């Protein structure tokens, strides 16, 4: 029952956003033109700092006074901030966010929040609002809606909360839904479910969806069209099939090349970083990072040019129309990995926690077996991935290896001897051999310590070398992880997320460990940076003969880095094999479902739900706009 | 909330009480002899000795201590050396006056501090914010007695508007309440401001605005209850400072409350009265802390239901 409207759900006409700060006017978003039809899903991709979020916030008029917006933002044909004579927010357009649990009021029940929204946005009250709320929860696929109404956000999973967020967004029957990285914080299975839900809702309600993401796999799965943003401008726009198969802008190519793929091809990060607003270079903002850059790129900003078929590119020297396929020969650089004596071995390990049953302050104490009968082994220079959803026991396994938890039964052996517990004198020596790369580098670094000092610190603690030797080693390590020497004097907050993660790796390497335990080391990073870090870890593994234990829920990252993969589910290793075998022919049903739910570009390209004859009028309109004044 | 939780709290409260009383017991007796303090300098040693025996002060301190608890357990908390009446009675009859001072101060603290903090948060970095924060800092930096004397100088000596001492009318209350409540109001304003600023940056506030919840409702129904949670702790602390501050304030304004009684008792070493006073202060602190815990429980469902999710694996 698609709703027919003559207006596109969203029409951004020459939207330019400036930030006024300390008497300076800095351009953040430059001349963005983007249109979304009713029932259409358009992906907006780009690295952090590209202006995606600011654009979204501008649509809902959520930018602070410091921002100045020019151009037209039309939602369902209405210009200005209103819908009818009320605020546009929630009625014409609504938004869902990256972290659903944090986006719900923690001290208010779901029912309270949802009924309140329904009452306000639909002008109904009491039992009617409640009935609509229950209907909405059913529509977003939450069973037992009556019970949900009485629950608090912290009593639900992230996926369930994202469904609640979607129900809240639907409360006002919006014509446009802005989804800002709606699945980034979720497990792959959850991600697939939420994407399916959004896909179903756009058909059912006819609302347009602007899907902001850095994951091209997600784009391939449900988007009809995609717009690529860089440094505040849209640099390429077109149908998903066109953009992903034959990217013409070098930046789009770079993004695609950076995506870990299921074929296991090596990823290539885009070197450099997005220029910050106010420090954008003359000419094309991407030129300094671009392999195709020619002279004109450094002097003139390329205009968006229509290259036919709704395809718009802003580049002086685009890839040829028939552009080479991106798939490179897949060299299995991991084949050389040694199969010598196991460096790390887990033998029939159980780990149980005593937990308090929720619901009462002093409830029953129950035993929660986080992992059961886990046996794994890892040799020098080899790489093993543990994948699974949150709650599968993968992080507990990492804790056991780090000595942060003792096994309840079984043995965790390093070089044939049991791993000492954290805090014991023996653990001090153990720490020299095993280091952890955590998920969030910012939190793992001392915010008030220079980068150089952070690397020297472990050497100080373990009394290695003289002062000069330590400084020399620090510079050696900075170079090894690809950081320039001047970084040594900077604080973590003066560095990017990728640089911080490199710093964490450098610090971990200071003690010349034999094993690195990487706990989702890239999940907090942009995709282009992700690829760089994976490349770095792989290079270090080969050069230093390091063993890598890689914990992740991102199967694609694992595929391109690790030789072997162990799949964990409910605390048990359900399948362990060579990566190629796991991804090529998963045997366990759980592995199969994991592999099947990965949003993968190559697979989605053939099954993309997009209608090929995309909205022509829109592309033409844009082309006219360019040819105009 | 169950029996074990309450018994454990009570047990802890009891230990706190015993420790506080013991500490004061020892300090007071180490600080000087109450009999010497009471009697004129030329009293003969025999009389001093008689007095000591009469009050049991000639015994070793541990025996005195045991005797004290022996009496306490039978409901006898000692007798005032000066008044010859049970210390409990002396303290209790002053309590209403002290409550008359502290309760309005408490509400003054909240009624001024909370809105000022919210206002400053909403007008962050503006002139309003700076003025409120400057007043707040001065408010809690000024010592009680100084502020009290300042007020007396201005309103009693210069302007002759308010009585400088005593109690009995509403006008008598104005300056003592201002003196006692200002520091708390300043601290609370500061905490409310920073807590509000933190909450206003939370994802759920942004999400609520994005789905069209009007600003005043975001403020009152979403931001404020969440911002209140950390402030509750501070309010608990401030009740403590009110009790301590009342001693000074009552002295400055010659207010006939329990605080002044305690101060007088300390200077004259009226041991039993001091002991009871300290016990009372300790008890009120314990009750305050317990109330704060309970309020937390009511406000934050995450505590009521446990965090629901086990440790992420």
Secondary-structure arrangement, i.e. CATH architecture of the largest domain in chain B: Orthogonal Bundle
Q: Given the C-alpha coordinates, what overall shape of chain A results?
A: globular
Counting helices, strands and paired strands, the structural category of chain A is: alpha/beta
Share of helix of chain A, binned: 25-40%
Would you write up a description of this structure?
The complex is a heterodimer of chains A (629) and B (313). With 629 residues, chain A is an alpha/beta fold. Chain A has 3 domains: 36-61 and 178-327 and 608-627, Rossmann fold (3-Layer(aba) Sandwich), CATH 3.40.50; 93-173; 342-598, Rossmann fold. In chain A, 34% of the residues lie in helices and 23% in strands. Chain A has an 8-stranded mixed beta sheet with strand order 7-8-9-3-10-11-13-12, with helices on both faces. Chain A has a 6-stranded mixed beta sheet with strand order 19-20-21-16-22-23, with helices on both faces. In chain A, a hairpin with a 2-residue loop joins strand 1 (10-21) and strand 2 (24-36). In chain A, helix 2 packs across helix 3. The model of chain A is unreliable at 321-339 and 603-629 (pLDDT under 50). With 313 residues, chain B is mostly helical. Chain B folds into 2 domains: 13-73, no CATH class; 93-304, MetI-like fold. Chain B is 78% helix and 0% strand. Chain B has helices at residues 3-31, 34-38, 45-55, 61-73, 87-122, 127-141, 144-158, 170-200, 203-210, 215-252, 258-267, 271-299, 301-304. In chain B, helix 1 (3-31) packs antiparallel against helix 12, helix 5 packs across helix 11 and helix 7 packs across helix 10 (215-252). Chain B is flat. The relative contact order of chain B is 0.13. Mean pLDDT of chain B is 86; it is low at 307-313. The A-B interface holds A 60, 62, 86-91, 94-95, 97, 99, 102-109, 116-117, 120-121, 152, 154-155, 165, 168-169, 171-172, 353, 355-363, 368, 370-371, 390-396, 571 and B 1-2, 4-5, 202-204, 206-214, 222, 225-226, 229, 299-303, 305-313.
């Amino acid at each position: 029952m698609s709703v027919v409207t003559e207006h596109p759900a969203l029409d951004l006409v020459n939207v330019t956003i400036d930030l006024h700060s300390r008497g300076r006017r800095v351009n953040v978003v430059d001349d963005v033109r983007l249109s979304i039809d009713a029932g259409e899903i358009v992906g907006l991709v780009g690295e952090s700092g590209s202006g995606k979020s600011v654009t979204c916030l501008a649509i809902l008029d959520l930018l602070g006074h410091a921002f100045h917006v020019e151009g037209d933002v039309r939602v369902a044909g209405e210009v200005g901030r209103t819908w009818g004579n009320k605020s546009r927010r929630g009625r014409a357009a609504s938004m869902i966010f990256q972290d659903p649990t944090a986006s719900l009021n923690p001290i208010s029940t779901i029912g309270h929040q949802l009924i309140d929204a329904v009452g306000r946005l639909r002008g109904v009250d009491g039992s009617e609002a409640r009935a609509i709320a229950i209907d909405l929860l059913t529509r977003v696929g939450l069973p037992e809606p009556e019970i949900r109404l009485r629950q608090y956000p912290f009593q639900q999973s992230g996926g369930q909360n994202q469904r609640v967020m979607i129900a809240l967004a639907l409360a006002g029957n919006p014509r446009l839904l802005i989804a800002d990285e709606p699945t980034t914080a979720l497990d792959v299975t959850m991600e697939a479910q939420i994407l399916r839900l959004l896909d179903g809702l756009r058909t059912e309600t006819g609302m347009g969806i602007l899907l902001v993401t850095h994951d091209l796999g997600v784009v391939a799965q449900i988007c009809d069209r995609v717009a690529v943003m860089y440094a505040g401008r849209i640099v390429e726009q077109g149908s998903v099939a066109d953009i992903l198969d034959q990217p013409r802008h070098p930046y789009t190519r770079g993004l695609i090349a950076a995506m870990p793929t299921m074929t296991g091809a090596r990823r290539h990060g885009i070197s450099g970083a997005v220029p910050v607003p106010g420090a954008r270079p003359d000419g094309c903002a991407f030129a300094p990072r671009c392999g195709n850059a020619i002279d004109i790129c450094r002097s003139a900003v390329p205009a968006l040019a229509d290259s036919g078929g709704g395809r718009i590119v802003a580049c002086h020297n685009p890839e040829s129309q028939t552009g080479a396929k991106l798939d490179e020969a897949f060299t299995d650089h991991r084949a050389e990995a040694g199969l010598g004596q196991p460096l790390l071995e887990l033998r029939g390990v159980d780990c149980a926690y005593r937990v308090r049953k929720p619901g009462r302050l002093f409830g029953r104490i129950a035993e929660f077996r986080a992992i059961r009968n886990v046996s794994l082994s890892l040799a020098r220079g080899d790489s093993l991935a543990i994948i699974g959803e949150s709650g599968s026991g993968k992080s507990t396994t990492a804790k056991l290896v780090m000595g942060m938890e003792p096994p309840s039964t079984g043995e965790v052996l390093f070089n044939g001897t049991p791993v000492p517990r954290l805090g014991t004198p023996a653990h001090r020596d153990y720490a020299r051999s095993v280091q952890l790369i955590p998920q969030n580098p910012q939190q793992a670094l001392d915010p008030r310590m220079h980068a150089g000092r952070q690397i020297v610190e472990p050497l100080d603690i373990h009394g290695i070398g003289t002062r000069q030797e330590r400084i020399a080693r620090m510079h050696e390590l900075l170079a090894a992880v690809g950081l320039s020497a001047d970084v040594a004097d900077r604080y973590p907050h003066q560095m990017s997320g990728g640089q911080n993660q490199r710093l964490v790796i450098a610090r971990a390497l200071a003690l010349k460990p034999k094993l690195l335990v990487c706990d989702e080391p890239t999940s907090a990073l942009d995709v282009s940076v992700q690829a760089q870090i994976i490349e770095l870890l792989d290079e270090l593994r080969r050069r230093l003969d390091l063993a890598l234990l890689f914990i992740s829920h991102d199967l694609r990252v694992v595929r391109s880095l690790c030789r072997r993969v162990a799949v964990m589910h409910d605390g048990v290793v359900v399948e362990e094999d060579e990566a190629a075998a796991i991804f090529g022919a998963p045997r366990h049903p759980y592995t199969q479902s994991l592999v099947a739910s990965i949003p993968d570009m190559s697979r989605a390209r053939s099954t993309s739900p997009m209608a090929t004859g995309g909205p022509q009028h829109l592309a033409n309109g844009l082309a006219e706009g360019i040819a105009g004044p | 909330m169950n029996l074990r939780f309450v018994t454990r709290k009570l047990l802890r409260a009891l230990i706190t009480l015993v420790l506080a009383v013991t500490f004061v017991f020892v300090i007071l007796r180490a600080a000087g002899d109450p009999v010497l303090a009471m009697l004129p300098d030329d009293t003969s040693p025999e009389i001093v000795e008689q007095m000591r025996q009469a009050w049991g002060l000639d015994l070793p301190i541990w025996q005195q201590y045991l005797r004290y608890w022996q009496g306490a357990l039978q409901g006898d908390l000692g007798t005032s050396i000066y008044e010859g009446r049970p210390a409990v009675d002396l303290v209790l009859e002053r309590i209403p006056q002290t409550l008359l001072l502290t309760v309005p101060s408490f509400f003054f603290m909240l009624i001024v501090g909370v809105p000022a903090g919210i206002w400053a948060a909403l007008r962050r970095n503006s002139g309003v914010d700076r003025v409120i924060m400057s007043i707040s800092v001065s408010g809690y930096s000024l010592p009680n007695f100084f502020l009290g004397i300042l007020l007396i100088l201005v309103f009693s000596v210069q302007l002759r508007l308010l009585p400088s001492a005593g109690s009995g009318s509403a006008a008598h209350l104005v300056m003592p309440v201002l003196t006692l409540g200002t520091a708390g109001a300043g601290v609370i304003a500061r905490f409310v401001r920073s807590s509000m600023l933190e909450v206003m940056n939370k994802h759920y506030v942004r999400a609520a605005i994005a789905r069209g919840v009007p600003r005043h409702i975001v403020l009152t129904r979403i931001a404020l209850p969440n911002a209140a949670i950390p402030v509750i702790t501070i309010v608990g602390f401030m009740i403590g400072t009110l009790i301590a501050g009342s001693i000074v304030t009552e002295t400055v304004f010659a207010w006939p409350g329990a605080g002044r009684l305690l101060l007088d008792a300390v200077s004259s070493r009226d041991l039993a009265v001091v002991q009871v006073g300290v016990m009372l202060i300790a008890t009120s602190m314990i009750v305050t802390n317990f109330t704060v815990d309970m309020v937390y429980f009511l406000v934050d469902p995450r505590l009521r239901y446990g965090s629901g999710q086990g440790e992420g694996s």
